[in-house]
Design brief:
The protein is of the alpha+beta class. The protein is about 25% helix and about 15% strand.
């Protein structure tokens, strides 16, 4: 994962990219609040604990193939 923070349009704090992708259209522009949430993602913190609007931001991260979610330890899941 790469967070580019240079030469960005107004209101954008970072352009988030997956270095493994060759498609240049898989970039997610994050505002300052989203970038702060992104930096709080540590693999242990629940999405709800990341802050207001975190669920929608994480959905966007998943759609852009920037994060992978492991729900194997969640209640109600089956193997």
């Amino acid at each position: 994962m790469l967070a580019v923070q240079e030469c960005l349009p107004p209101g954008v704090a970072a352009a988030l990219l997956n270095r493994a992708h060759t498609d240049t259209d898989l970039v997610l522009f994050a505002d300052p609040e989203e970038l702060a949430m992104f930096h709080r993602i540590d693999g242990n913190t629940a999405i709800a604990e990341l802050g207001l609007g975190a669920a929608e931001f994480v959905r966007r991260l998943v759609r852009h193939d920037l994060v992978v979610l492991d729900a194997s330890s969640c209640e109600g899941t089956t193997s």
